Amino acid sequence: MDSAKLEFAYRYPFSAKAREVLEADGSTAVEGRYIEFGRERVDADIRRESRYYDIDMENIKLGEIKSYAYARMIVSAINNPIIIDRFCRGEAERARGAISNESNSNIIRLWRELGVRVDANADREFAIDFTDYLKSMPRGEEYRLVNSRLRAGTVILSRGEMESLLVESIYKRLRGGLPIPTKELPVEVVAASKGMGFDVHVRLRVGKSTKSMEWIESLLKNPIPDVRHRTVNLILAPYLTNVRGLEVEEAYRIIRDYVEECKKLNPDTKVNDAYIKYQCRYAKEHKMRPLSLSNAKTLLSGLVELE
Question: Is there a single domain that holds both residue 68 and residue 109?
Answer without folding.
Answer: no
